[in-house]
Amino acid sequence: MLRLIAKESPIYRHELSNKVQKPMYVSTQSSHHSFLWDFQEISSGIYIARFQDTFHELSCEFTLELKESFVPSEDETEESFIQPVLVGNFPSIDIQRFQQKILWDEYLQGMILIKFQLKILEKLLLFCEDKKAPYLFLTFNEANQDYLEIYQCFIISEEENLSTDGELTEITIPSDVSVYDDLIDLTNEVDHKFRKTLWGEQRVNPTFRHYLKSHAILKF
What we know:
The chain is of the alpha+beta class. It has a domain at 66-91 and 106-214: Aminopeptidase. Helices cover 31% and strands 28% of the residues.
């Protein structure tokens, strides 16, 4: 099984919380909130990416390919150019057990999913850096269009295409330091707002109160 080493690059101003990315099913955080990930090379340039939030029972898995491709320029007046890219079709996140575990609340479930998606993108950007791929290409189908919104904060291009499976949306995200830093800043902002809302409304919202009791790490 491939072990991805996430080296602390001097270009990243944010300290990486996990310098060594561990195999799946090995906890990387507290027992109450574990985010696990793994990149396994199955053939040359082809990887299986797995992500799991063991506390919230969220998971997804998809194939990534490292190759050279034309990358759309951020300046529409300039031509596209060939660069190493990491390409993948973003899957639907498995939420069946998540919905059973987390009492129904639209805000609560929505924020937990957003936090999960942000963690996935962080690990993808680190993997791009490890493989020296300046760009990440992700394709979304009609079933998972809702996932696009949070990733649109970081894209340089977005294209709509039709296929036998319906409409597809292809996005390009740079894996450079500025995008990584923007991602960490957004993640911290989302975390802060999430905590503030839960603690501010838990007295009148029993779902929030129940979640906080089972999730003691959500403190300021």
